[in-house]
Amino acid sequence: MNALLPTFDFNSMFVAPWTTALDTYGWMTLMAFLVTATCGLIGNYLILRRMALVGDAISHSVLPGLAGAYLLSGGLTLPAMIVGAVGAGLLTTFLIEFLHTRSRIKADAAIGITFCSLFALGVVLINVFASKVHLDAECVLYGELSYLSRGSHEIMPHQVSVMAVVAVIVALLVVCFYKELLLTSFDALLAGSQGFRPGMVHLMLMGTLSVVIVAAFESVGAILVIAMLILPGATAQLLSTRLPVCLWLSVLHAALCAVGGLHLSLILGCSMAACVVVAGAGLFGLAWTCSTIAQALQRKAALNAPVEA
Q: What is the model's pTM?
């Protein structure tokens, strides 16, 4: 067992990250929290719309968008990455809707066809233009929080500052367009009859999701971000049926995942990004257990309640 796991050292695994090594692990934890919280806010709406797999599709399809943005702009700057990602995200949404509405193909099959094809195209572009497109395929797929770096004149690592800006923008959009997102998520026809534009809200949500995925690439990668889009919202919606409560619970879930993932990665000696997802899955399991027990107690109480004449 000692050969599989690093020697347990309570001080280095639980104390040092918040004292002597805070400058390193503090930024990693903050980045994990920002990514998970931002994905969780958007993920709540994806789950309500029964579109969790669309988040999966877009997280994969932005890969050719990034490669294409470089080939067209000649550089892999942040504006080019955002434009390429948003374009790829909207293209993914259009292709899914087109295949689903213009043929007998079901929605799940349309999602699978679209994201597999676009993701494969992205892999081909990266391999063909590997000498020009400076994308670390392993980092794009799996991410690595330990890659965070801070310049001599920077207050915080640039990845954290970018993700913080994206997180604030997403939070503001959720607050400003809360009514529109709520109505279109529960009943698009009702929202349309009330003068809202469900199609425009949907495109705005998909575009925002694409930007979040790009900002999260370097830290958690395209694959792990899928779990972060689903786990916080799914966990929150097990515990409450009120959307505002679910949004706050998603943020709390993100904080617990970030801290738990850090310590789990130090205990196991592996990638923190993956451990954050494992911690999130553990919280989901705990929430599911509590929810199941609560429902069983409610059913038992209802059966034992006296029947009024």
A: 0.84
Residues 57-70 pLDDT 10s:
777 777 788 778 77
Three-state DSSP at 88 gives helix
Residue range 94-132, pLDDT digits in tens? 888 888 788 888 877 888 888 888 888 887 877 776 555
Q: What's the Cα-to-Cα distance from 83 to each of 162, 211, 232, rounded to whole Å?
A: 15, 9, 27
SS3 (DSSP) at 148: coil
Average pLDDT, the chain: 82
SS3 261: helix
* Calpha distance 5→267 (Å, rounded): 8
**What are the angstrom distances between the C-alpha of 162 and each of 208, 296, 305?**
14, 45, 55
- Asked whether 27 and 157 are in contact (CB, 8 A), the reply is yes
